[in-house]
Amino acid sequence: MNHLGFKNITVSELQTWIQNSEEFFLIDVREQYEREICDIGGKLMNFHAIMNNLDAIPRTIPVVLYCHYGERSYFIAQILSQMHNFNNIYNLLHGINAWATEIDSSMPKY
């Protein structure tokens, strides 16, 4: 954990979690129109949906947040960690763009 209260995870680390069937909860913090372009799964919850449904976010398993470049998810990870006392939050570094670049080159970029 860093000084911000949450952890970062790379796309290769996340791919390993998926391949190893690790238990985690994935949240796509983008908007619906972005998800229609490309996605790696998870529950679609933008900032407002997350803030209005904090009880829907597990506290006992890792929760990975992702967005386009990792900036919105970073911001939300800070809020969940610092203001709502989540200690199981991970931010996907460089977002789905990194996934499309490093893991799945067939994925559309935007």
User: Judging from the principal axes of the Cα atoms, what is the shape?
Assistant: globular
Strand order of the largest sheet: 1-5-4-2-3
CATH architecture grouping: 3-Layer(aba) Sandwich
Order of helices and strands: EHEHEHEHEH
Give the percentage of residues in beta strands: 15-25%
Number of H/I helices = 5
Average pLDDT rating: 96
Radius of gyration: 13 Å
Largest sheet: 5 strands, parallel
What is the CATH topology descriptor?
Oxidized Rhodanese, domain 1
Helix content: 25-40%
Parts with pLDDT < 50 across at least 5 consecutive residues: none
Under CATH, the homologous superfamily reads Rhodanese-like domain
Query: What is the number of beta strands?
Result: 5
**Class from helix and strand fractions:** alpha/beta
| Highest-level CATH class | Alpha Beta
Question: Could you tell me how far the N terminus lies from the C terminus, measured between alpha carbons in angstroms?
Answer: 30 Å
Q: Write down the oligomeric state.
A: single chain
- Overall number of domains: 1
